[in-house]
Amino acid sequence: MIKLNQSQSLTTKYIIKAKFEVDGIVEKHDIIGAIFGQTEGLFGPELDLRELQRSGRIGRIDVRLKTKQNKTVGIIIIPSGLDRASTAIVAAMLESIDRVGPYPVRVSIESIEDLREEKRKAVIERAKQILREWTVSKVPSVSEVLKEVMGSLTPVKVVKYGPEGLPAGPDISSSDEIIIVEGRADVINLLKCGITNVIAMEGVKVPETIVRLSKERIATAFLDGDHAGDLILKELLNSANIKYVARAPQGKEVEELTPREVMEALEHKVPIESLVEVAALPNEVVKAVDELKGTLEAIMFNESMRVIERVPVSELAQRLKEINGVHTLVFDGVVTQRIVDIACEKGIKCIVADRISDVVKKPVNIKMLTFSEVRGGSSH
């Protein structure tokens, strides 16, 4: 790489390096004179080498030469602060020089070095060195890591809150948002997940403390994915000011959820308004249940409970993908995860079927019932 003095390197972006061979003995000033003389006026003042030097966009032209066997050979070095296209034109202008004094000359570009690329390489190498040094100096010892990990295992204690002494997390009195669960075991599980603004009902009846808190804070009900959870939700809706509802997967309880399942359930909480919309079961659905039993068919209703289409269950998944505006789906078959996923995508609010698969992850924004529950007057 060609080295420049400090004043040149401040503005130089490229270095043009050209080799030459003169059929005679000449000096440096002869070469430089030929460069200026034979390029003058080729492209106007914008690319005139003297003007470019005066404006600082072309640096000092350096010529390094030696003589051998009545010939002069060497290299021409020109620092350029021009853009790539203009620098290429200057390089081509050098190759147009054909005489130095009385002697023929042949000039060819050997290279054009991008000083910024070299600088980038140097910066990258230095960055690697800094990163290595930083990593070595900042990596904690094994004992420090073990101490920190063991410290995190110290359990957060359950506190008693309110006149009823309800099990709760330590931040229940200071948090703007609260999570209401069913029992003490649920509180303990959420504390293990780092959720400390939780409080338990400890029964079906809604305590006055929870009624008060729900009016003062943003309250989320996080309930088991079973029939008991449905009953408690109804009690909360009648007594407290619940903003959001989260549910454990169908058939599971909050106390047995893994940290990942807890976070997923809370991330998918829904506004209470979306649940109230499907709380009541229309007569059309009840009639459809009686009509479809044993037929292996499905009926799709719109929001006004008008029939959109009746199809065989074998064609249900494909038709659901194709049809828009389905609000309620009733069919003589088994609710699978595939049906649930399509229903979520299409915005379906209610699914009633003969059975619900045990592996289905039930979204809280879709009401799911079985035929037996509809006939028995209970909800799922």
Description:
With 380 residues, the chain is α/β, with parallel strands linked by helices. The chain has four domains: 9-117, Ribosomal protein S6/Translation elongation factor EF1B (Alpha-Beta Plaits); 119-152; 159-276, Dna Topoisomerase Vi A Subunit, Chain: A, domain 2, CATH 3.40.1360; 283-376, 3-Layer(aba) Sandwich (Cytidine Deaminase, domain 2). It is 39% helix and 25% strand. The protein has 15 helices and 17 strands. The strands form four sheets. It has a five-stranded antiparallel β-sheet. A five-stranded mixed β-sheet has the order 9-8-10-11-12, sandwiched between helices. β15, α14 and β16 form a beta-alpha-beta unit. α13 packs parallel to α14. The longest helix has 24 residues, at 115-138. The protein is elongated. Residues 1-10 have low confidence and may be disordered.
Attribute tags:
380 residues, alpha/beta, Alpha-Beta Plaits, Dna Topoisomerase Vi A Subunit, Chain: A, domain 2, 4 domains, five-stranded antiparallel beta sheet, five-stranded mixed beta sheet, 15 helices, elongated, disordered N terminus
Task: Chart the SSEs and their pairings.
Layout: H1 6-9, E1 14-22, H2 28-39, H3 49-54, E2 62-68, E3 71-80, H4 84-95, E4 99-100, E5 103-114, H5 115-138, H6 142-152, E6 159-161, E7 166-168, E8 177-181, H7 184-192, E9 198-200, H8 208-216, E10 218-223, H9 227-239, E11 244-247, H10 259-267, E12 270-271, H11 272-276, H12 283-292, E13 297-301, E14 307-312, H13 316-322, E15 328-335, H14 337-346, E16 350-356, E17 367-370, H15 371-376
Parallel strand pairs: 8-9, 8-10, 10-11, 15-16, 16-17
Antiparallel strand pairs: 1-3, 1-5, 2-3, 4-5, 6-7, 11-12, 13-14, 13-15
